[in-house]
């Protein structure tokens, strides 16, 4: 947010052409490189499902590819959350140790000048 409470200005969107399952799509977004990367990942997922299943129905292939991508995302999200919980627990243990150490240290008189 800016000082006046308005959100910061967004960069201008750009149009990027990508190919998904052999079809060209024009996508609009702020980061063309990211759009291309995401489109390549989706295209790979579509090709993987089409090749493994032998399905010819584009909609069914797209739904299965979307479910696969969502499953991968959920697995990574759960792993990230587990790591975040572990880091939080470790930080709390370190804080407790530091507090115990600080309590055990006797104050040292400041040197007099």
Structural notes for this entry:
The protein is α+β, with helices and mostly antiparallel strands and 113 residues long. It has one domain. The chain has two helices and two strands; from the N terminus they run ββαα. It has a two-stranded antiparallel sheet with strand order 1-2. β1 and β2 (23-29) form a beta hairpin. α1 crosses α2. The longest helix has 47 residues, at 58-104.
Keywords summarizing the entry:
single chain, 113 residues, alpha+beta, two-stranded antiparallel sheet, 2 helices
Strand order of the largest sheet: 1-2
What structural category characterises the helix and strand content? alpha+beta
Spans with pLDDT under 50 lasting ≥5 residues? none
What is the strand tally? 2
Round the mean pLDDT to the nearest integer and report it: 92
Radius of gyration: 26 Å
Determine the fraction of residues in helical runs and give it as a percent range: 55-70%
**What is the count of helical runs?**
2
Short description:
The chain is an alpha+beta fold and 113 residues long. It contains 2 helices and 2 strands; from the N terminus they run ββαα.
Question: Which helices and strands, and how do they pair?
Answer:
Layout lengths: L13 E7 L2 E7 L2 H22 L4 H47 L9
Antiparallel strand pairs: 1-2
Helix pairs in contact: 1-2
């Amino acid at each position: 947010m800016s000082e006046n409470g308005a959100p910061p200005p967004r960069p201008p969107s750009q149009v990027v052409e990508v190919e998904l399952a052999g079809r060209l799509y024009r996508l609009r977004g702020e980061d063309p490189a990211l759009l291309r990367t995401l489109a390549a990942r989706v295209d790979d997922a579509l090709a993987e499902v089409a090749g493994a299943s032998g399905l010819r129905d584009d909609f069914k292939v797209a739904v299965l590819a979307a479910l696969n991508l969502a499953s991968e995302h959920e697995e990574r999200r759960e792993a990230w959350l587990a790591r975040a919980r572990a880091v939080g627990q470790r930080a709390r243990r370190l804080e407790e140790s530091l507090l115990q150490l600080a309590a055990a240290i006797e104050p040292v008189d400041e040197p007099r000048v």
